[in-house]
TrEMBL record:
Organism the protein comes from: Chitinophaga ginsengisoli
Pfam families according to UniProt: Adenine_glyco
Protein name: DNA-3-methyladenine glycosylase I
GO molecular function, one term: DNA-3-methyladenine glycosylase activity
GO biological process, one term: base-excision repair
Amino acid sequence: MNDYKKIFEKVEDTLREKSFLSQTEFDNKYGHFKRIENIKRTDEQLFEIVTMTVFYSGFSSAIVDRKKDKILSYFSSYETTSQYTENESVKILTDFDMIKNKKRIDSCIANAKTFKCIVDEHHSFQAYLDSFEANSSFENLLLLKEELEYRFEYLGGTTVYHFLMDLGYKVLKPDRVLIRIFKRLGLIESETQLFKTVIQGRKFAEATGLPIRYIDIIFAK
């Protein structure tokens, strides 16, 4: 049987040693990842996460981070974005400082329309998320995952887990880095096992009593 707590503590200690940070500096850098769960967000904050997830999907995070302010200058409001037409899409593409990917831009516009429909029906996007009671059972969490994959563009595969993790749900992002680490640790047998990677992440969170977002960032670093 794997000692998940011991494995994680070793990884955390190794990261701390290699970072050459004091305990206080380490906590200041990574501690906020322990406080992501159970945060209630506004519609604007949630739409920002939807939008940024679209651009982070399969793209260099360093590039997206540098372009974040520019991206949000066009997609900060779901109500405004939902009214965009092809003319706005083309205009955004002409911005020298913008990531020039029409499929992602059009997906953000489509997602804004979907987001607005959900808010109109449920009065807030948070209320829509809460209606799934995704923290009460893993089955409900998977139902929410499936719903998001169906309704939103670019929220599929690894990306939907990224989105749910950033919202504070008990899943981690089974990306290439994490999958390879878990495979080296003998926790999964194949790099195609996204779901099993998520399950293993949940076991780390349960064994340590730490939020899974913190588990993810420590392994990813």
